[in-house]
Structure formats: structure tokens, C-alpha cells
Specification:
The chain has about 300 residues and is of the alpha/beta class. It is about 30% helix and about 15% strand. The chain folds into 2 domains: about 5-205, DHBP synthase, CATH 3.90.870.10; about 230-310, Rossmann fold (3-Layer(aba) Sandwich). The protein has helices at about 1-15, 40-50, 65-70, 75-85, 120-125, 150-155, 195-200, 265-280, 295-305; strands at about 20-25, 30-35, 55-60, 70, 90-95, 110-115, 130-135, 160, 175-180, 185, 205, 230, 240-245, 255, 285-290. The strands form 2 sheets. Strands 1, 2, 3, 4, 5, 6, 7, 8, 9, 10 and 11 form an 11-stranded mixed β-sheet that branches. Helix 7 links the parallel strand 10 (about 185) and strand 11. The N and C termini lie far apart (about 45 Å). The structure holds threonylcarbamoyladenylate (TXA) and magnesium ion. Threonylcarbamoyladenylate binds next to strand 5 and strand 6.
Length: about 300
């Protein structure tokens, strides 16, 4: 515990100097910086090699701080009460007098916000006088990190400090829902669509690409292990890793199991870990067996499709 507090203080030291610190969250690790400081936020874009027109998610400890920066509405309250802190990101209207750096939002009138669940990060946010802008702590287009070691593998010694919060519990990024007009889901993730539909008592649309923000095609390749991926494969070829949703009776050295018994939650947690593991071996390509689009299966399929460049 003392060790944790010392590490939180160390994070504050670097963040107050406008430096970036990697933070643990229940979804994936984030590369965090003061969202009110353009100097700090620019460092995130440089380190990640992220296109400047791709806005960042801002992380808050609670509603009081949030209300200074954005306009909240009824749907927000309903979802906040049910799921926060947790793996859901809201796109809301930015207040005119907010202190958020224009670089964070790419000069737009909307902002993506979330309340992460990890204990250390929650404590850190409470002790800071500003919210934290934090994209996933990976080089742009690469696999998202779910542990301190993953972050180190992405950035080496280029980042000042990693706050170690152990392995991310969910292992997939947050679900993004826009509440600016009619609610719409912009990214599938840590909270299943059916759960959101149930709470809002209607079927929320899933908009595959937000053309206003993402120039068509620009962010097509994502979560990429750097080798070709074939989806819905029945078997594997020579020098190919084979990702399977559940354990097979007859195993092979190139088989990688997302879960033991077709558990989609477990599979979501293991997905990036396994992609990274395969990336670090000498396979030439990856085959993935058909994964049903049930529950988290939908988000898993989405990530694999993007990782395959489709
Ligand atoms: O789970 C997560 O959300 C993780 C952890 C670290 O919190 N963060 C994360 O950030 O996944 P990132 O930057 O990898 O993905 C953020 C996504 C991007 O696709 C970006 O285009 C979208 O959020 N986004 C940010 N601001 C937006 C806005 N105002 N409107 C629509 N989309 C926005
Ligand atoms: Mg990302």
C-alpha cells in the first residue's frame, strides 16, 4: 500500500511537470497527461505517433470536475449511475469556458470522457487538480497494452514512469457512446451493447465509422500485430498461429486459446495478450477460427477485423 502511494506521488510529480505517465485502467493501460495543458498533451501525440486529428479520451475522478468542462444530460446520468466508474466513454458537448486543451478535442465542440475503475488511477485522479487525457498506451495502430510489461515493450525508456496496477481486468477498450444528439455507439468495448440497450430502454445504433472525425480509411489498420490475419479460418497453414475460442481435445504448438470453455469475457481479456504473444514469436501469419458475435464476441470480432486491416 505504501509502495502504491509512493508510486502515485511519483506519477503526480511527472504529470505536474507536463510529462506523460502510463496509468493502469480496467480496460487497457493509458498514456496520460494533463488535459488542460497543450504542452503536456502534445507529448502524447508525439510519443504515440498519433495523427493530430484523432481526439483523446479525458479521464475524470467524478462529476464535480466533469461539470466544469462539459454539458451533461439525462441519458448521461442514467448510464453514469449504472456503469460508472467502469468501461464506458461518453461523447458530450464541450463547455465554451472549459480549460481542456484544444489539442485534446482536435478543436471540436465535443469531448470524450470516462471514469476508470482501477484503484490506483482513481486515487491519482482525486489528488490531481486536472483531468487526464489518455489514449491507449501503444504506438498508433499497434496492439493495446494490458500490463506494465506491454507498455514497456511499446515505448522502452521513452516514457518517464509507468504506474503499475497489474493486469487490466477487462482487457478491451471502453465502449464509446455519443450522447450529443440521439445516443449512438461509436466503438464496441468493455460494456456489452445489450446492457446499454436495457438501461436506456431502446436499441442504440452502432455507427461503424464517424466520418466527421475519422477521414475515411485513415484509421483502418488498428490493434495490429504486424503480420497478416485470416478470419473465420477452419484450420492453420505452415508457420501460422491459430487462435481458437475454446480448448481443443487434440492440441498443437501453434494453437492459442482465448478461453477454456468458450467464455467470451475471458476471451476478451486474453485477446491482446495472445496477439502480443504471437507477435513476439516467429509466425508468418495468424488464422482465427470463427467467433460467434455473442456478448463480448461482437467486440472481439470488431478488434480482429481491424487488426486484419479490413
Ligand atoms: O478504454 C479506453 O477507452 C482506453 C483507456 C486508456 O481509457 N482509451 C482508449 O483511447 O481507448 P484511444 O485513444 O485509444 O481511443 C479513443 C477513441 C478514438 O477512436 C477517438 O477517435 C475517439 O475515442 N474519440 C475521442 N474523442 C472523440 C469525440 N469527441 N468524438 C468521437 N470520438 C472520439
Ligand atoms: Mg487505442
Amino acid at each position: 500500500m505504501n509502495n502504491n502511494l509512493a508510486n502515485i506521488k511519483k506519477s503526480i510529480f511527472f504529470l505536474n511537470k507536463n510529462d506523460c505517465v502510463a496509468i493502469p485502467t480496467e480496460t487497457v493501460y493509458g498514456l496520460a497527461a494533463n488535459a488542460y495543458s497543450s504542452i503536456a498533451v502534445k507529448k502524447i501525440y508525439n510519443l504515440k505517433k498519433r495523427p493530430k486529428n484523432n481526439p483523446l479520451i479525458v479521464h475524470y475522478s467524478g462529476l464535480k470536475q466533469l461539470e466544469k468542462d462539459c454539458v451533461i444530460n439525462k441519458n448521461f446520468f442514467i448510464l453514469y449511475k449504472k456503469f460508472c466508474p467502469g468501461p464506458i466513454t461518453f461523447v458530450l458537448k464541450l463547455k465554451k469556458d472549459s480549460h481542456i486543451s484544444k489539442i485534446v478535442t482536435n478543436n471540436k465542440r465535443t469531448i470524450a470522457v470516462r471514469f476508470p475503475k482501477n484503484n490506483l488511477t482513481q486515487k491519482l485522479l482525486k489528488l490531481l487538480k486536472y483531468p487526464l487525457a489518455a489514449p491507449s498506451a501503444n504506438i498508433s495502430t499497434k496492439i493495446s497494452p494490458v500490463s506494465k510489461e506491454d507498455v514497456r515493450e511499446e515505448f522502452g525508456n521513452k516514457i518517464k514512469f509507468i504506474l503499475d496496477g497489474g493486469r487490466s481486468r477487462i482487457g478491451l477498450e471502453s465502449t464509446i457512446i455519443s450522447l450529443v444528439n440521439k445516443p449512438k455507439i461509436l466503438r464496441l468495448g468493455g460494456i456489452e451493447r445489450a446492457k446499454i440497450n436495457k438501461v436506456l430502454k431502446k436499441n442504440i445504433r452502432y455507427v461503424i465509422k464517424n466520418k466527421k472525425i475519422n477521414a475515411p480509411g485513415q484509421f483502418k489498420l488498428h490493434y495490429s500485430p504486424g503480420i497478416p490475419i485470416r478470419l473465420n479460418a477452419k484450420n492453420s497453414k505452415t508457420n501460422e498461429a491459430f487462435i481458437l475460442i475454446k480448448k481443443r481435445k487434440k492440441s498443437s504448438i501453434n494453437y492459442f486459446y482465448l478461453s477454456k470453455t468458450k467464455d467470451f469475457k475471458q476471451a476478451a481479456k486474453n485477446l491482446y495478450k495472445i496477439l502480443r504473444l504471437i507477435k513476439n514469436k516467429n509466425y508468418e501469419s495468424i488464422a482465427v477460427e470463427k467467433i460467434p458475435k455473442i456478448g463480448f464476441g461482437e467486440a472481439i470480432n470488431d478488434r480482429l477485423k481491424k487488426a486484419s486491416g479490413k
